[in-house]
Hints:
single chain, 257 residues, alpha/beta, Rossmann fold, seven-stranded mixed beta sheet, 7 strands, 39% helix, 19% strand, globular
Amino acid sequence: MNEQIKDQEKFYSVYRGRQGALYHLAYMRTAKVKAVQHMLGLNGISLRGIRILDYGFGTGTLFRACHPSCSIAGVEVDRENVEAVRAMLTARKFNVDDIQQMDVAHWKEHPLLAADRVYDVIVLSHVLEHLDDPVEVLTRLGRNLAITGMIVVLLPLNEKRPDPNHKWVCDAELVERWARSSGLVVADLKEMDHFVQPVQPLLHGESGLRRVVAQGVSLGLGLLQAPFSPATWFRIGGFMKYLGAKPGQLGAVLRKG
């Protein structure tokens, strides 16, 4: 039990002290942001002038892609990381009142999920695969979704190296089942990002030379993608299927039923 608690603490604190510009360029972050932008773009939404909740915002990289006209909100577990993200966003002139820590044991009572809170976009980027009951979370978040709003879900796909923190092996059928059970409908579903799947085992080095390799690969891909729009980047990646690569991310847009 102590080892399990220690592993969970390590997982929750993984983003501490990771607010440098190069960290935000790493593909482990930019790939997720590009995927969110791609799913929104396909559905006629940009990161401008919207009310957005990033449920499990990690290092806050998605917020860096938001226009200042957005009303941003987000929750994360680790207090130190939350404070670091608040400082980063304050420097970028965002209102950070709604960038808050969340106590997992009492997540349903969080003020950002109060009955009077309504969001145009709710993002769950690589979150649901970590949860025991994704349907419960989707059902609860659906109550805070605007009538015409959308929940954008990103999930890992075709993992070569299983992540021990993942409780689900994800595919389109699983997302459809979660959506039905939570009273939502799948408005869009895309398998994308053929870049990450071939190198996925390299991106999880935790120490020593493996860690250096992981950081190098992640930064290299991050720099490579920077000039391209999300649609163009994933279109280019699609050609990698001819080299045997499979899509590494599953994107879904969920709406009220």
